Q: What sequence folds into this?
């Protein structure tokens, strides 16, 4: 036999958790009205304003997908994922926003608007305090390069903190191989 108090409590717990009990909205279940949450399905995902990354590349970066369930938290995380990808590629002033548009079939279209801004490059790499090794040799040991004629193709002039950390280590090893490690001291980096 079904205990009405237990059933009423179970339906309430299901409603609080955000899941919809298997009844239609407004149908009383033993004195409890079940409020069915409206989950919107995603009809399509579009990107506007993107030039650096193709729509297919951006689609691979986001979690929201066509036929998936729309949540504002997921879209907010996707906005941040897109922004970080552009940031890693040197577009430090990128802004990414999202909006939703209803579709005729009751779904929602998610549109990501990207404003890339200008790509930041590295104007110059300067060394101070290096007397034993030329700046040209030190620059050759680094991954980070100055903006040059082929930078648009090679993309080796992107400012990246992780790449600078690797460059510091490469320079430390370069000095060590040159038997100048006593003079190398602490290799600092200023931007």
A:
């Amino acid at each position: 036999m079904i205990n009405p108090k237990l059933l009423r409590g179970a339906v309430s717990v299901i409603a609080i958790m955000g899941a919809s009990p298997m009844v239609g909205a407004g149908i009383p279940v033993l004195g409890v009205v079940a409020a069915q949450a409206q989950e919107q399905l995603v009809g399509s995902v579009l990107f506007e304003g993107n030039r650096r990354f193709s729509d297919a590349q951006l689609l691979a970066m986001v979690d929201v997908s066509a036929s998936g369930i729309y949540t504002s938290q997921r879209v907010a995380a996707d906005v941040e994922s897109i922004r970080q990808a552009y940031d890693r590629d040197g577009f430090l002033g990128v802004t990414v926003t999202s909006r939703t548009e209803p579709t005729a079939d009751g779904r929602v279209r998610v549109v990501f608007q990207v404003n890339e801004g200008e790509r930041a490059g590295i104007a110059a790499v300067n060394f101070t305090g290096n007397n034993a090794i030329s700046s040209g040799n030190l620059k050759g040991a680094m991954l980070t390069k100055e903006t040059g004629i082929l930078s648009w193709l090679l993309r080796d002039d992107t400012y990246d903190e992780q790449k600078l950390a690797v460059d510091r280590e490469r320079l430390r090893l370069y000095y060590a191989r040159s038997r100048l490690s006593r003079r190398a001291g602490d290799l600092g980096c200023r931007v």
